[in-house]
UniProtKB/TrEMBL annotation:
This is Holliday junction branch migration complex subunit RuvA. Belongs to the RuvA family. The RuvA-RuvB-RuvC complex processes Holliday junction (HJ) DNA during genetic recombination and DNA repair, while the RuvA-RuvB complex plays an important role in the rescue of blocked DNA replication forks via replication fork reversal (RFR). RuvA specifically binds to HJ cruciform DNA, conferring on it an open structure. The RuvB hexamer acts as an ATP-dependent pump, pulling dsDNA into and through the RuvAB complex. HJ branch migration allows RuvC to scan DNA until it finds its consensus sequence, where it cleaves and resolves the cruciform DNA. It is found in: Cytoplasm. Keywords: Cytoplasm, DNA damage, DNA recombination, DNA repair, DNA-binding, Hydrolase. HAMAP family: DNA_HJ_migration_RuvA (MF_00031). Homotetramer. Forms an RuvA(8)-RuvB(12)-Holliday junction (HJ) complex. HJ DNA is sandwiched between 2 RuvA tetramers; dsDNA enters through RuvA and exits via RuvB. An RuvB hexamer assembles on each DNA strand where it exits the tetramer. Each RuvB hexamer is contacted by two RuvA subunits (via domain III) on 2 adjacent RuvB subunits; this complex drives branch migration. In the full resolvosome a probable DNA-RuvA(4)-RuvB(12)-RuvC(2) complex forms which resolves the HJ. Residues 72-91, 107-126 form the Helix-hairpin-helix DNA-binding motif class domain. Has three domains with a flexible linker between the domains II and III and assumes an 'L' shape. Domain III is highly mobile and contacts RuvB. Residues 150-199 are annotated as: Domain III.
Amino acid sequence: MIEFVRGYIEYVCPEYIVIETAGVGYQIFTPNPFSFRPSHDTIVTVYTYQYVREDLMALYGFRTREERTLFAKLLQVSGIGPKGGLAILASGDVRQLVQAIEEENEAFLCKFPTIGKKTARQMILDLKGKLQGVILGATNDLFTSWEDEKQENAFDEALEVLKALGYADREIQKVAPALKKEPMSTDQYVKRALQLLLK
């Protein structure tokens, strides 16, 4: 198991990042890739989860161990795969998710892409009372912003991230007008869009 990868962010796209360390580039799928800024002068640590299936081997990365722990627990729920787990964690608000599970708030859980009533119920059955450790170490502000990003590119990139997370075009178009009201970075657009989509 790879505990973490530490190195420079070499590349960022809507689905994954590439970290270069010791001359090797690791492709790592993350909840919000644009929360990582490509930089050759700042070393970052990404906590990883290695996912192995008969037809797939992939690395999933997170800013904190608590976020990774929650991802691993989500994968244990029937009906949730890695893509669904990333979409759930992309909101960046671990406490809100854990609170919804503890309070059996199925309506909130069903707002995530690919999560229907049956899966939401299963999440509650499988995870309620088992996430206290996740809350203790979690932070609401998991992501950093890009201050020097061009506005139009930031907005377009955010829409691509939402599509990669599994949101339908009609859902994205509902929140797009509200997003354009103020200039933000890609990461801020994604977080704001997820807040609106989860209301």
